[in-house]
Specification:
Blueprint: H1 6-9, H2 15-19, H3 32-48, H4 52-63, H5 66-90, E1 92-95, E2 99-104, E3 110-115, E4 119-126, E5 135-142, E6 150-156, H6 157-170, H7 173-179, E7 202-207, H8 210-219, H9 222-230, H10 234-246, H11 252-255, H12 263-293, E8 297-301, E9 304-309, E10 314-320, E11 324-331, H13 333-338, E12 341-347, H14 355-361, E13 363-369, H15 371-381, H16 387-393, H17 402-425, H18 429-452, E14 454-457, E15 461-466, E16 471-477, E17 483-487, H19 490-494, E18 497-504, E19 507-515, H20 516-532
Antiparallel strand pairs: 1-2, 2-3, 4-5, 4-10, 5-6, 7-8, 8-9, 9-10, 11-12, 11-16, 12-13, 14-15, 15-16, 17-18, 18-19
Helix pairs in contact: 3-5, 8-12, 17-18
């Protein structure tokens, strides 16, 4: 086969027959060149974005030497195109009755052999540049190492949907009986956003409107991360912005000069400038939320959750309820004020070298929903849970106040004493005062952190509460716990305190400095549930 499209034009054989071919290596459609090109650009710009502040303050020097940067850009584009073409030429795949093989790589040759029995999720992505040609990308995720993930790029969308269904049919019956939960499939059309267009057996659980995405963009923490990343370049950026504004007749140095302006005027200018910057960053954050979650639909088909979203690239992620390990209800401080919740369904993922990718693929996020919507989704996934009752009546058991004592007396205070002593000895009284104010602020954050911590349990679930200014709630079935850890130092033993750590297939959770008896109770209940429950944690 010279092209993936031939799989569909050959009338003598259907897709099932093609899956039975054992020795016929196939190539991708030529449109795959575009995929590899975009992938290289995304990788490059993903790293170059950190240089934006540097370019912002040195753009004049760059523009002054076009004979250097212009040829460099042209050479870079040529190399990227060549790399994409070669990647397309060396990519080969074949499908057998029960596995997929992929050969790829230019400098680092890769040969992947993935049995269908190990597939955990089947995801289809359709970038905007594939919608006009009817192509898509199919990704097979496993419960093992991220190195075993397979991705078919530039295959026909119809073939991708057929393959999702046929993966399950190609697994031997003995494997299907025991490991049926390893396969997540859906025969619905990719990118469908309304209930009318979904399969008849598929039930829509939640949809997000554009206004919800705007709120999510405003309340997300992308703004503060961006501001923190720009911190080292504030001085240079201020000088560059000041020079640009001076060409428009606006002198920042004059506006913020306390010798010519009153303190009130300077403060007003600072506030106005800060608000302007914040509005710009909020705009970027809102755009990011819309791009990621536009057309969001969460639906349920049998025992599977299916999430579809994306403005430019349509994403579809499936999750079997049997693989659901934990539900997380997150609220940042703005979410608390606006009474919004970001809900996360976390399933099994591998602890591989590519941890970030693995973790991202193991979650279904429902952005910016109301408390009643959140509780309805939690009740659907975990019937008979008590989370809402615990939250409304504040029935979480707090951790010990020793948490405050430990962090302030043994961590913050020694550092504060050393720094203030040094500054006073060097006659830097103002610095000493600022350090002291910072110390008091950190002490306040420690108290807030302690206040957020809490733990509760019932017959079937464990509930954790933690946070700082915002608050997060964690709910997981006790029988899903794979391992528990009991930690107790001499200080804690004297005060009958202990730290408990729960290890699940989706990650670990820790509860510090709780009563020793409660710690033993949590561990013993976990062991009992694991030994007595007949349900599979997978």
């Amino acid at each position: 086969m010279d092209d993936q499209s031939d799989v569909h034009t050959d009338n003598s054989q259907n897709p099932t027959d093609k899956l039975l071919i054992k020795n016929d290596w196939q190539v991708l459609s030529p449109v795959a060149i575009l995929y590899f090109t975009v992938s290289v650009f995304k990788h490059l710009f993903g790293n170059l974005i950190y240089l934006i502040p540097v370019l912002a303050v040195s753009y004049k020097s760059v523009l002054e030497h076009p004979y250097i940067w212009l040829p460099s850009i042209l050479v870079m584009f040529a190399l990227i195109t060549l790399f994409a073409f070669v990647s397309f030429k060396v990519y080969r795949y074949r499908l057998t009755e029960d596995n997929i093989e992929i050969r790829s790589g230019i400098f680092n040759k890769k040969h992947l052999n993935l049995p269908f029995s190990r597939v955990q999720n089947v995801k289809i992505e359709q970038p905007i540049y594939y919608r006009f040609t009817g192509h898509a990308c199919l990704q097979l995720d496993t419960a093992g190492s991220a190195k075993n993930e397979a991705k078919l790029v530039a295959i026909k969308l119809s073939f991708a949907q057929e393959l999702k269904t046929l993966i399950q049919n190609q697994v031997p019956n003995d494997i299907m009986d025991t490991d049926e939960h390893n396969i997540s499939t859906s025969t619905t059309e990719l990118g469908v956003g309304s209930a009318d267009n979904l399969g008849q057996q598929e039930k829509v659980l939640n949809q997000r409107k554009l206004s919800d995405l705007v709120i999510h963009g405003i309340t997300s923490n992308r703004i503060w991360i961006f501001l923190g990343g720009l911190a080292p370049f504030y001085d240079n950026m201020f000088n560059s912005i000041s020079e640009w504004l001076s060409t428009l007749g606006i002198e920042l140095t004059e506006l913020f000069n306390l010798q010519t302006r009153s303190l009130f005027e300077v403060g007003l200018y600072v506030l106005s400038l800060t608000m302007l910057v914040m509005f710009v960053l909020i705009g970027f954050s809102v755009i990011g939320a819309i791009v990621s979650f536009y057309g969001y639909t969460l639906s349920k088909l049998d025992d599977k959750y299916i999430r579809r979203s994306g403005l430019f690239t349509k994403h579809e992620v499936s999750m079997r309820l049997s693989r659901l390990q934990m539900i997380v209800q997150k609220q940042d401080w703005l979410d608390v004020l606006l009474k919004r919740i970001n809900l996360k369904f976390e399933q099994t993922h591998s602890f591989s070298q590519n941890q970030n990718s693995s973790a991202a693929n193991s979650k279904i996020i429902v952005p910016s929903i109301k408390p009643d919507e959140s509780q309805a989704l939690i009740d659907d996934a975990y019937p008979n849970n008590s989370l809402n009752n615990l939250v409304c009546n504040d029935r979480f058991t707090p951790i010990s106040k020793g948490f405050i004592l430990r962090n302030i007396l043994f961590i913050l205070m020694p550092v504060w004493l050393v720094i203030t002593s040094f500054t006073i000895m060097n006659d830097k009284l103002m610095t000493s005062i600022l350090v002291s104010v910072l110390f008091l602020g950190l002490c306040g954050l420690v108290v807030l952190r302690w206040k957020r911590w809490g733990v509760a349990k019932d017959k079937h679930f464990v509930y954790l509460r933690k946070g700082l200014i915002g608050v997060d709630y964690y709910c997981f079935p006790t029988y899903k716990v794979q391992q528990t850890q009991f930690k107790q130092n001499l200080f804690m033993k004297k005060r009958q305190l202990a730290t408990v750590k729960f290890i699940l297939a989706s990650g670990s959770l820790m509860v510090p400095m709780i009563n020793e008896n409660l710690a033993y109770e949590l561990i013993n209940d976990g062991l009992y549930q694991v030994e007595s429950c007949q349900k599979s944690w997978m």
